[in-house]
Specification:
The protein is of the alpha/beta class. The chain has a domain of about 130 residues: Cathepsin D, subunit A, domain 1 (Beta Barrel). The protein is built from 3 helices and 10 strands. β3 and β4 form a beta hairpin. The longest helix has 26 residues. It is globular, with a radius of gyration of 34 Å.
């Protein structure tokens, strides 16, 4: 072999060696995916519902709806009010006492929707001081924990025991029940099919 042929072969050998090194280096950085990882299904997302039940999308409710309270075994016509932070119910003869070291309350639920009274005794879930309009004096208001059902919506709330004698509806549903579950259309009434409610409500 002549000297000129050796000079020609040397660059070719160097090029082949360089190419092999580049391929090997690229392979080192390639991600390794096993067949088990590629075919493994992703776990579904799970929503914690707790003791509450609600559709996946918000429900449109009217300005007045029938609401069932299983603890009292009755249904109320309720004013739906997004301006109220907490729900409240018409209660009279409210009297606090102690049982087993815990605060309890004795009261009478006045359901003017069905013209019935329900004497009850329940444990107090919370107590707040409410300032009265006009005189500015504060009043202790007790709450009880109950489950409310409106159509397909069910939620446990701390409901205030209040004097609603000068109001049309014995039950007020506030944001504590509506938040995250319902939107209010004030032009409509009695849109939800609440268990135990009359088939047709009064159209407002």
């Amino acid at each position: 072999m002549t000297y000129s042929n050796i000079k020609t072969l040397l660059p070719l050998a160097t090029l082949r060696r360089t190419t092999s090194l580049l391929v090997l280096s690229f392979a080192c950085f390639m991600p390794v995916i096993s067949p088990l990882q590629a075919d493994k299904p992703q776990p579904p997302s799970v929503k914690r519902a707790g003791s509450e039940t609600a559709p996946t999308e918000k429900v449109v409710v009217g300005a007045v709806e029938y609401v069932a309270i299983p603890a009292f075994d009755t249904v109320f016509a309720a004013r739906i009010d997004t301006g109220a932070k907490r729900s409240s119910i018409y209660a009279v003869d409210v009297e606090t006492f102690e049982r087993d070291g815990n605060p309890w309350v004795r009261f009478v639920i006045r359901n003017t929707t069905q013209d019935k009274d329900f004497p009850m005794e329940m444990e107090v879930s919370r107590t707040a001081r409410i300032k009265q309009k006009g005189d500015g004096e504060s009043q202790r208001r007790h709450s009880i924990e109950v489950v409310l059902t409106m159509g397909d919506l069910t939620k446990q709330v701390h409901i205030n025991l209040a004097d609603r004698s000068n109001l049309e509806y014995p039950l007020l549903i506030g944001r504590d029940f509506l938040k995250g579950t319902a939107l209010v259309d004030v032009a409509r009434s009695f849109t939800q099919k609440t268990p135990g409610a009359p088939r047709k409500g009064k159209k407002k």
